[in-house]
Amino acid sequence: MKHVWGAAALAVSLFAAAPSWAETVSLFCSSSGAEYELCKNGAEAWAKKTGNEVKINKMPAAWDEALPLYQQLLSAQSQDADVLLLDVVWIGLLQNHLLDLSAVLPKEDIAANFPSTVAAGTVNGKFVAQPWYTDTGLMFYRRDLLEKYKKPVPKTWAEFTETAKAVQDGERAAGNKDMWGFAWQGKSYEGLTCDAIEWVSSFDGGTIVDDKGNITIDNAGAAAALKQAHGWVNTISPQGVLNYDEESSRSVFEAGNAVFLRNWAYVWGTSQGKDQPLVGKVGVAALPVGKDGAKSSGCMGTAHLGISKYTKHKDAAVSLLSFMAGKDEQKRRAIEGAYNPTIASLYDDADVLKALPFLKDAQTAFADSVARPSAVTGSGYNRVSQAFYKAVHGVLAGEEQPEAALKALAADLETIKKRGKW
Ligand code: GLC
């Protein structure tokens, strides 16, 4: 596992010539899209302002590769982890290693965030994860191509599948042999849990485990959703989609080789960045639904910042976290990178609204986003998600029929539950 952090090799120290009283705080930054630069620039600004140093550890772009490494560092009470970037689904798992931030952050700095994000950062009465940006699964589409083929933005998955095929076939006939209808995340990992919970939930198939902890995944809606997704492989999506994560699917779309892309909001920032080939050609919408009138179900993907309770630099770590998750920095990240603020008042900020036009176009996606069952399954979430994405991957690859796979999955989940995992 060492190779992923490559600890010293990947760590970048900012402000090497700091004064003797300065403290060095380690921070984890994601490496998807432009996020590393954004994070590094923010940390640099804090270092400059306070005279302290930051040691940045670059996380793998696929976040679930980072979780075991966090678990390792935190169990060892390592000093290489002060301020941590936390996926919303890790908060329950890591809670015992995290500082209670309600004791160190001003109340108003916490209350400035959307209540749902503050609730997600609170476990067993302890507030351990300050919201940093909010996210949901979105549908990016080639606006120019839908116009060319006179197709509306599809509302249901059936309509979507037809449109993706028609535009793909038209573009191939016109000479782009590499064109595909739909790029998404089909690799066997946490990202597939997100994609698949979106399909399942939009077919009224629930969220694997319901709010009370009951296992609900073995149902007809879920089977129909998986059957449909299996049908995309080799028709509107390449076989290789079974190995795509966020970044590989994004590169297919941004190279001009996909009509639709399911991804997170950051793709607005990357695809509409200066000199990008798709500037002005991309639209963003809520994901389609299983049947007319059903709710769109983007997966909720909020990111938080937390502090290791083993830190020896508590004050400096709190200062860095407050700066990174503060209003000015959230505003800069929204404008420069399309990261959606969690601070409610920034949604009235004209500069933010101008930079993120999709907030208006895809409003329902944010309003109706669906949470993975991490709160109710607590420390068992990882096992639940792994069992789910492996079963889904088997169906996508044609190794299993949806009904049989879901039945076996429900039985596996019962075992996990019985072992006292939730
Ligand atoms: C994004 C989301 C995160 C999710 C991950 C899956 O990083 O923010 O919540 O777990 O994608 O790959």
Automatic annotation (TrEMBL):
Species assigned in the record: Mesorhizobium hungaricum
Signal peptide (from-to): 1-22
Domain of life: Bacteria
Protein's recorded name: ABC transporter substrate-binding protein
Lineage: Bacteria, Pseudomonadati, Pseudomonadota, Alphaproteobacteria, Hyphomicrobiales
InterPro entries named among the record's database cross-references: Bact_solute-bd_prot1, SBP
Gene Ontology CC terms: periplasmic space
Residue ranges of the TM segments: none
Coiled coil, from the record: none
Family per similarity comment: Belongs to the bacterial solute-binding protein 1 family.
Entry keywords, A to Z: Periplasm, Signal, Transport
